[in-house]
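Researcher: Please generate the 3D structure of the following complex. Treat every line as part of one assembly.
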Amino acid sequence: MRVILAEDSVLLREGLVGLLERFGHTVVAAVGDAPALIEAATEQAPDIVITDVRMPPSFSDEGLRAALALRAEQPGLPVLVLSQYVEQTYATEFLSSATGYLLKDRVGEVAEFIEAIGKVAGGGTVVDPEVVRQLLTKRRAPLQRLTPREREVLALMAEGRSNSAISRALTITEAAVAKHIANILSKLDLPPDQDDHRRVLAVLAFLNT
Amino acid sequence: MTVRGALEALTYNPLRFTRSRWPWRSLAYLLASAVPAALAAGAVWLISRWLDPLGVALACLTLIVLLTPAVTAFERWRIGLVDRDPLRGRTVPFWWQVSNAFVISYALWWIDLGVVLLSLGLPAMLLTAPLQPSGTGPVSSSLLFGAGLVLISIAAYPITAWAGARAAMTRSILCPDDAGEVRRSRARLVDAFEVERRRIERDLHDGAQQRLVALSMNLGVAKLTLEPGSEAHKAVEAAHEQARLALQEVRELIRGVHPQVLAGRGLSAAVQDAAGRSPIPIEVELTVPRLPEAIEANAYYVVAEALANIAKHSKAKRGWVTGTYDGRTLRLEVGDDGVGGAILKDRSGVADRVATLDGVLRLSSPAGGPTRLAVEIPCA
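Model: Done. Output below.
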């Protein structure tokens, strides 16, 4: 896979390049700020862009803005955003601009991190479990109608897990998972949808309103 | 708490107050007026022997102008009797001192002595009842003596109150920007803290945090190369876990120091996120534009502190944060449906933060709840 990486910390950038190459990906450009990221992504046509949120020059949210700009230019471009923070504010904005939002810590869980990259590059959505957890604690009125088990399923759904992954995580049958999901979607007044990606977005959009 | 002056001493309980030295110091302060009063009376009397009334008035004015430095020095000295705070700030212009000296000589010295006379006159009369040859019996004169004792303790109050007020008045005339300077320096201090917090946050983010992420990543890679279940794998696994926890702690630390979203997105977003992290459901209705950094930061910490208290003490089922900004004033309210009984400590960080911004803080928390904390901060 052809990857473009934007990360201003040299230590981490070199580490990530090594990690990605170890798993057979090609890092076509590793840059340290947002303008360089946009330039590289426009020239190189990568399979996925992985970017830090906070970069020079103003160290606020250049990575997110760059992701937004890139997605506006190339609507299908998979973008995975790595953040030191999980903030709902950024998660919400980002969901319109990128398709993966992970806490930087997750790069330590190497196997899962590589899997997440694959999922995002394949057109899927990955949202950090921490973000999902925070969104769920808001406990909006319709969420109160869910049973504890259904909440667990919703949390896993929102992380982008498939039905079989959910069944493994909760040690229940896939049929039971499907039934929970149908219940959740109907309790939340969401139309049933077979597309995982849209399902996640629908759930998150609901949680965020 | 140490009392800084006579006015503050009035808040002591009566026993402690009457036994403290503040009534005596106040009495000394007021009696000190006898010196200039005697001088002034003597001067007027002497002058009036040679001059007509108009001449007397003119001579008095001239005398006041000539004596102004002495009067000012005298007033500055005796403020120390009833007020421990030294007089700071620049010296006021001479003409200002002259008008002060005029007011003091014209009215205040006489009032000082009048207050002493009125407060102590009756008690003194009663206390001397046993010595007076008015023919009252020993029983009634000792009753009168007792009443005199009570009245003399009561007299401590008007004397101290007037001395304190009088000193405050002199202070505000001679050092008009004293209070303002204290407030400004406090605001500068809070600003400096804010700058420092941001620097610490930046350093932690660029340094420790990045290194921990890299460490965690390297340990993750190392784990892959090792045989699962082997001793080495277990050791690396444990180290990896430690790195993960350290990262979590650093992240929480950074958020406490200065939340990134506050700088990046402003107060509304930062409050939303803080509410999202609360273990108690908090409803947020807050849409305010970007405001000056100091206001955003202080308002945020006030709300965050209130939310933390709700989570810790209120036993509430839900809470809320509302806020408006009308172009001049930022109004915030944090409330919960908990057990109430919250108190605002004098020296709480919340009160200090609001005070440095000239804001107003109101807390209503009857036993049984609900608790409401309302904050108004002027932004103009």
